[in-house]
Specification:
Beta-lactamase; alpha+beta; 13 strands; 17% strand; 15 helices; Muramoyl-pentapeptide Carboxypeptidase, domain 1
């Protein structure tokens, strides 16, 4: 049975016995911020589901427990509960505790160490929307009617923008470095506001930096052959399709190769120093280091990038070796690069990723929608905004590890998101455009495990998205 088909009152026993109905109730509660997503969308009407129903009934003034047509219609029609968003503002530590409770209640597989970091796309609302991400980021939206007081034109390549060094002081102490770039449109181009917490400190960002060699290969390939589509390219004849290798890097599925060995292979298309200088010339950060691999040898020592349609060799390797322990960019560098990817069509040519064509970048955007970390998605659920936003885009790259040199557990996260905020929409207006790119690195002593650290990142991303929504970030 579905909610739409309820005409008579059901007992709680009848509800519990109807798997399809329970799934629908859980999904509706998730969209209102009253029930977690991911593995909790399981059709099991347990205490957590019952509590979510009770909280919903209390919020909308319905008797509980009473599973009748009025309850069903109200659950179907309610798009947003302002009280949920208000609650996240009033008690941030409670949000962390709630997320930690969810994390600790999630069953992890042997390959997972943190439930939000490794959540994946199962039961995600956005799985079927990923293919639309390139079209959505290509659209131009009207700016908010309020003045863009703290915004500036997006900087040219090689220029570091003015970063508000106190703009992220609200972040928890476990977040050691962070950078957020909030964007909006003016005259068809992106204006940006940059906020940071130790944003220019060069640190190890683990696998989050793998977006750099991916985009470097795309830029170099299109510089040599402007009209090729990277989706038609293979690494060494027809064995490894480039986009399939990138998907393995992002998802860790290992269908062709491991994520680490794939990313190391892509680094071989330039010498370490040349790739490092490429990044410096884009972001302007002359202090960064980016010359090493990812803990595994490249799966191919002499890769060639070949266009399948023409048979043309697009890129050849310079026959070089990677260095060790030399990947130290900043939070700003990663935020800058992912924002350049998403906003490519809206930036002046001298601010774009050099040489890249949009056809190739669309494939990368789509693949980055499959990242296993779902922190932005968790934030949207926690804030009860799932049904109050339209045209969402969520692309990201996770990173995590234990640092022997620092003796700390660490999680890094680089992401871009945009959507239309339709909480207060009427028939004459579109939703308000909201967009940001962000990078965070969290670090704690081993006494705090990855599950706790994972919940902290989820809570801080939730607060960033909340401030974006209420206009208190830029």
């Amino acid at each position: 049975m579905k909610l739409e088909n309820i005409t008579n009152q059901l007992s709680e026993t009848q509800v519990k016995a109807d798997y399809e109905l329970v799934i629908q109730i859980q999904i509706k509660l998730r969209g209102l911020g009253l029930y977690p997503g991911g593995k909790f969308i399981d059709g099991d009407f347990g205490p957590r589901s019952r509590r979510g129903v009770k909280d919903f009934c209390n919020a909308v003034g319905l008797p509980f427990p009473k599973y009748d047509q009025t309850f069903a219609r109200k659950l179907l029609e309610t798009r947003h509960l302002p009280s949920v968003l208000g609650m996240t503002n009033s008690n941030r530590e409670q949000i962390f505790n709630n997320l930690l409770n969810i994390a600790q209640g999630t069953k992890l597989s042997s390959s997972e160490m943190a439930p939000f970091l490794h959540r994946g796309l199962k039961n995600s609302k956005y799985t079927m929307e990923i293919a639309q991400y390139p079209q959505r980021v290509a659209e131009k939206y009207d700016a908010d009617s309020s003045p863009l007081l703290n915004y500036q034109p997006y900087p040219k390549r090689g220029i570091i923008p003015t970063i508000d060094s106190e703009g992220l002081n609200f972040l928890h102490a476990d977040i050691k470095e962070a950078c957020v770039c909030v964007g909006n449109f003016k005259n068809g181009e992106i204006q940006a506001s940059w906020l940071g917490k130790n944003a220019l400190a060069n640190r190890q960002f683990w696998s989050a930096t793998k977006i750099i060699p991916i985009l470097n290969v795309v830029c170099d390939a299109n510089t040599n052959f402007p009209n090729i589509d990277i989706a038609n390219c293979y690494i060494n004849q027809n064995i490894y399709q480039f986009t399939d290798v990138i998907l393995d890097i992002l998802t860790y599925q290992g269908r062709l190769v491991s994520s680490n060995s794939a990313a190391a292979t892509l680094k071989l298309f330039r010498t370490p120093t040349s790739l490092e200088n490429w990044v410096k010339n884009i972001t302007g950060n002359q202090q960064l280091s980016f010359r090493s691999g990812y803990g595994e040898p490249p799966f191919m020592r002499q890769p060639q990038l070949i266009d399948r349609l023409s048979g043309q060799k697009v890129l050849n390797p310079p026959f070089t070796n990677l260095e060790s322990d030399k990947n130290y960019p900043s939070a700003y560098d990663l935020t800058r690069i992912i924002s350049m990817l998403a906003w490519h069509l809206h930036l002046p040519e001298d601010a774009q990723l050099p040489g890249a064509n949009w056809q190739s970048l669309q494939s990368i955007i789509t693949i980055m929608g499959h990242d296993r970390a779902r922190y932005v998605e968790v934030a949207i659920e926690t804030l009860g905004l799932e049904n109050a936003i339209a045209s969402p885009v969520i692309i990201s790259k996770l990173g995590n590890g234990y640092s022997n040199t620092r003796g700390t557990n660490e999680i890094t996260y680089v992401a871009f998101t945009q959507f239309l905020d339709e909480r207060n929409i009427d028939n004459n207006n579109n939703g308000k455009f909201r967009a940001l790119a962000m990078t965070l690195r969290a670090s704690v002593q081993p006494s705090q495990n990855f599950v706790e650290l994972d919940a902290r990142i989820a809570a801080e991303v939730t607060e960033i998205i909340r401030r974006l929504i209420v206009g208190k970030l830029a």
